[in-house]
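Sample entry (757 residues):
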Amino acid sequence: MRLPLTWLLTLSIQLLSSSVHAISGDLELSSLAQQGKHHELIEALEPSIRGGEDVSSFQLMMLGGAYYEVGKYRQALATVERLEKRLQAGDSSAFGADLSVYPAIIRAAVALDQGLLEEAIHQANTAAGNLKPNQPFYRSQLIMTGGTLGVAQALAGADSEARQQLERIRAVNLDTSNLGPEKYTAMARIQIALKDFASALASISDPGAAVSPTLTAFYDPTFQNLPRFFMRCKSLLETGRGSEAKLGYDELLKHPQINQYGTLYWVVLYDRARIAITENDLPAAIDLLQRAIEVIEQRRSSISTEAGRIGFVGDKQAVYAQLVSLLLRQGLDRQGFDVAERAKSRALVDLLASKSEFAIRDADPGQARRVLAEIDSLDQVTQQKLVSPVGPDTPEIRSLAVARQQLAATSPRLASLVSVGITPIGQVATMLSAEESLVEYYYSGTDLHAFVLKNGKLHAVTLDKGRIETEIQALRNAIGQPDSDKWQSHAERLYQHLWQPIDKILSGTSRIIIVPHGALHYLPFSVLRGADGKMLVERYGLSVLPSASVLQFLSPMPADSAASMLVLGNPDLSNPALDLKFAGEEATVVSHFYPDSRLLLRRDASETNLRKAGRGFRRLHIASHGSFQAEAPLDSGLHLAKDGENDGVLTVGELYGMDLDAELVTLSACETGLGKIASGDDVVGLGRGFLYAGARAIVSSLWRVDDKATGELMQAFYRNLAQHDKVEALRQAQLSTRAQFPHPFFWAAFQLTGRAN
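Predicted structure, serialized as tokens:
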């Protein structure tokens, strides 16, 4: 398994002291593992597995470790299941060592690689609780489980528990063993995860951390030395020894095998760029960051496959953010805008990486799914860290690029979810009407930028970020107090930070499309208030988009499309406390605006009926509860009536598999506009899901709304649609509702995502 100087190393030494005749085959297998020839080890054992031959627990343990090493996690876990059956049959030891703990050890390592910290902690604790002292592998197993557990705990924020594992490893006696490298490297990994880089540097530099020369006669230490060397460079950089770190990183970048470690490779490039910035060598820093992004974007999934080995999870979005700032400092505004869009695209791809089922409406579904399956297969190959070679210019990478190009040509909408891509800014400009401007925000750390696209010209403005997140939360808290005017001061300060510096650029604009970023997704821009007391809702027609590139998929409905509507209201959720009286009344009134409408209430307002009938209507109105799952964004959803076919919760993840053809979807429910904010953006919420499902525009809410005021606003909105487009209809509805309910709590929650026409 991919652990510092793995248990296989100790195993090989112990095998050498056993009967050579009895273990020659197993020694050969372990020697392959030590040389990084994991595929050869797999090829040696797989025929026996396929042929139904008797394979020992020891060999299954070796095979599971090899699968783990090359990133074949499914096969690793399947082998673990086979190993457990063998153990239960009585084959639980080899050469006096207990093998029963290895299923949990392998599962813990896989979970840590995949970022499943709770599962990693659970499995490592299971293994640690079953360790048996006074057997040959005990100390190695203790170091192994403690290292995995300590890193997982540190990354999960359980620092004190992680330090306990660190001390357990520190206490391991090294007498009559070759466990020094394993011990000190495990300590360094935990210390890096704890961000205690000074201690990590001391551990990784300890003489005991080096591989003994007597071992390298049959053991190629490259695959342990590269990550260890990185840990040393990282610790030097973070402790202020930049010149030494620079020399080390340059050596790493020259290493012929560094590009086999995709996760490690881009982190090295990023850290080296940070050093170039301190030296004011901005062209070199830009080149290094661009190379790092190329590595990041080679793969669909965002698994942190080096986290268990180096104790460090790199922040991919930090690479994009740093490059955006440098490009703008160099006056390269268009390039900076493109990178900001790529960052949003990368965040969306990461959040949807676990999905394989998508609705496909712009291409032959069978062909598109075959190409997607090929991409996923090639993506897995390129993640297999120890394949030799899988670098930036290999058949695997080239085939992956061709498959992505084919998918982009076949189904561009699907391609936008599984690979990073953007719409060129020139094309975005052609999609804006004469009265429209686009304002896209992007921030990270202390930097905050606004890109304003107006009349085909791009303006990049650096803003005072201040305490944006705190101020937005304060505004939302104040809006939640309908009997107070405290919201006004917060709305004015946010206006000064976010809008005043771009106000003159937007002169003459009546429509503004806002692309928020980070916490700005939670901000009701309509209430931002200038020095003259006017709010933005009084000056502009506002809409939002998750990214500018989404515009290419929001084509207008045919002019002769019938204005039919499907209305679902106050579904029966089997709990009287969840009944929404006003939602039912609202749905009934709304349905009367269109003669060709279908009204579904209570039990009829079901997920099943929405799935079956939704595509047949131009407009959908859903008045129900919504839920927002911050830690599991794809599980956020609308709560509808359940039946024998569906559970009643239409989740975000399920929306990506639906096929609608709607001009407008109105979500008159609680917090339906919220979604998970990834580290660099894109919000995966109900609005984003409905856009992919085929809606051109979505009206949704940013907080729990008042039933009565919402009913008034919705009726006004639909009345206004007879004379105005969607943006203006919503603006006028908000203004009329404001006249009756002045406080923004009652009218400012709703926003339109998508296009006005």
